[in-house]
Amino acid sequence: MPDPMTLSLNEVQSLARKAARGAGFSWGMADEAGRAVRFLHEWGLDGAATLTFLLDNRGTVVGQCGLTLACRLSDQPPRGREEHVDVIAPALLLFGLGSSGFRMTWQDGFAYVGEGLSVVGTLPARGTMIVEPCGTNSSHTSICHRATCDDTALTKLELFARRTYAPATEQSRTLGAGGADD
Q: What is the DSSP string of 60-122?
């Protein structure tokens, strides 16, 4: 297995944004995807792999889109009640819950999101999550300053991102990047 690549948090956020747009998300949702991937990497989770799974399986796997649901939860968090949701790429929900003081539980683990982020167990690629308010957690994962990404995930994100690039024209090939005055 090849060594994982490391990128700056800005680089992975930008790539995720372009990839989400290339996969058909609106620019607003693509911005949220970039921020979500960055958030996950800051807390030591592979946001690039999470987004890749979502983009590869969007519309083909039963469950709510983790990115769309994360945005809804950030605007309207559950108030005093738990929500059961079947979701694709549930790690993205951690971004939507932000620092609000929530617990997310799945079959073999749980995560607390509050002043920090604590994850016990491995987040599944899809599954039923129980999201409930819980107050603050006292356990904090340290913040990462670089994004460690799976090479395969990065390659797939780059393929989605290429869909946003303007096609080359004869004039652009002749002038090259930056162009020149005639």
A: TSSSEEHHHHHHHHHHS---SS-EEEEEESTHHHHHHHTTS-EEEEETTEEEEESSSEEEESP
Among 79, 98, 107, 82, CA closest to 136: 98
Contacts of 102 (CB under 8 A, 6+ apart): 77, 78, 112, 113, 114, 131, 132, 133, 134
Chain segment 15-72, per-residue pLDDT in tens? 999 999 999 999 999 999 999 999 999 999 999 999 999 999 987 877 889 999 999 8
Using CA atoms, how far apart are residues 15 and 106, in angstroms rounded to an integer? Answer: 29
Please count the helices (runs of H) and the strands (runs of E) in the chain. 7, 8
